[in-house]
Structure formats: C-alpha cells, structure tokens
Specification:
Elements (H helix, E strand, L loop, with lengths): L3 H15 L1 H22 L1 H9 L3 H28 L6 H17 L7 H12 L3 H14 L1 H15 L6 H26 L1 H23 L5 H23 L2 H28 L6 H14 L11 H11 L5 H33 L7
Helix pairs in contact: 1-15, 3-15, 4-5, 4-7, 4-12, 4-15, 5-6, 5-15, 6-7, 7-11, 8-9, 8-13, 9-11, 9-13, 10-11, 12-15, 13-14, 14-15
Amino acid sequence: MKNPSNSSQENISSFIKDNKKAIIVSFIAIAALTFIIIFLSGIDDIFNALARTNLWILGLTFIIEIVIILLWSLRWKYILNRMGSFPDFQNILGILLTSQFGKNITPGSVGGEPLRAYLLTNYDGTDIEVSLASTFVSRVFEMLPFIILSLISIFSLFFWEIDFYLKLFFIFLIILMIIAFIFIIYIGINKEKSEVMIVKILNIISPIVKRIFKEKFVYDNIKDQLIDYANNFSESFRIIVEDKKFFATGASLALVAWVLDLFNTYLAFLAIGVHVPIPPFIIIFTISIVISFIPILPGSLGITEIIMIVLFASIGISAYNVFAASTLERLSSYIFPTLLGIATSFYYTKFGFRNKKN
C-alpha cells in the first residue's frame, strides 16, 4: 500500500487541479450573482441588518453546525459498521470534512459522495464496494427528512393566509417534490423496471443532447453508468429496508441533523431581529433546500438566496433581511465546514490518514 501521506497529497491536489477550470468559472459566476443580489437588495440596508447581528445567537449556530457534522459522521460510521467495516471515528470525521470541502468548491457537488468513498478506500483501506455503498445508503437516509418536511409543509399551508393562487403554486411545488421522492423509492424497490426506465429516458434525451452540445455522445457508457448508479441505489435501499433497527437508527440521525439545520436557518433570522412565522418558514425552507440540489454552482450559492428572497417576499420580509440572514447562515453551514475541510485536507496531505491496516 502507498504511503498515506504521499498518496493523499497526490490525490487531493489532483482533485483540485482536475476541476480548477470549473471551480474558477463557478466562483466568478457566484461573485457576479452575489453582486447583482446585493445591488438589487440595497447594500446599505444589508449592512445595517448585519450590523444588528446578535453575536450570541450567531455563535449558537456554529455550535449547532458542529453537532450536525458529528451526527453526519456518526451516521456514516454506523452505516459502515453495519456493512462490516470499522474505520476510526476520527478518520470518518476527517474524510467527511475533506469531501465536504471538495463538494463546496465544485459545481454539481462533484466532490461529494464519490470523493468521500474514494478517500475512505484509499486512506483507510475499506473496500471500494463498501465505500460506495455506504454513501448510497447515507443518501437514502436523507430522503426521510424531506418527505416529512414536505408533508409538514402541506399541513402548514392550511394555516398560512396568503393569496389563493400563490398557495396553489406552493402546493404544486411540494407535490412535485413528493412525486420525486416516490419515484426514487420506486427505483429503489424495482431494480429491473428502473433499468428499463433509464433506457427509455436516455433514448428520448440523447438526440437532444447531441444537437445542443454537438459533441461525441457515448450512449453506451452513459447508459452503463446510469444503470450502475440505479443498481447501487437499489442495493442500498434493500440493505436499509431489510433491517428495521438499522433503518430506524439511521433515519433518526438524518432527521435530527436536518431539524437542526432548519433551526439554524431560523436562528439566522432571529440573529438580525427578524421573526418569521413558523408555517411559511418551514414551507420556504423545504422548497429552497430541494432547489439547492440543482447542480449549478458550488453549494448553490446565489441560487438559494434568489429563491428565498422571492419566496419570503410573499410574506412581507424584505430582500435585504433575507440576504443578511442567508449570509449569516452561510457562515456556519458553508464557510465554516469548508474551512474545516481545508484544514483536514492540509493535515492529511502532510501527515496522512491514521490507517489501522498499515
């Protein structure tokens, strides 16, 4: 086995090098988008809102974010232990933060689950099949909080006095999310049918892709990758549903983490003295989080802010307050984990992972 220090330096550095163009273009786009939002929202109003930040509440958001990161790490270790792999918790935590750094600086979350699985395999000795499967299982667990939040959002709409057509619009978006969740579950249960569906969808979109990009479209490679993804997801789904205790524990950890994440966003508004009604807040949080999964910019920076500004405007909260609160929330949920990820990347580049198998 390679020396972990040399291997980590080569692979973490090469990851950034391979994606440097996408990273640079993405952050230029983020800077431009942020400038537009600030200009339209009013820079003086934003600074005035930030100036009244309650530092105690802001500090609490960082503490909660640490708890969330620990819960993510605990859940991943629990999944790996269930699959017969027993990496040290500090390795789990370090790899998670390092992959979070990669995820936060690349568009489309290129550095997310695949990088996490890759790091675990190369620097802790876990089999690649187990590493990949554990990230898929982790993603399946993420579905439960969104399903619950979506259902709560529909219930909350009955207590939100807004324009009838706007209410219909929100209901439409939430129903779309629920349909998406049901579709994902369907794929997880029906492995064979999901493969047939992938081929049908690919047959429809491939001619369009060819015409738009005018590049060589390797149909078979893409089909094999999508089918492999569906198979891995289906296998991960099977592992979960066959063990009720495993499902209950993993889903509970995921749910607690997302509730804390929701609470952190609410605290960001409280920190600048803005009290948001609970029903619309849950609805807007759910919609904005789901939209943030669209693989456009790192961390969906700018995209989520625009969506939140538009949605919160419907309940009379000004754009500058929304942007100020979003800025505070990003400090703990995006900047803080990214800085920790940079630190762990540097540490493992210099000293290597603590590998019990070396």
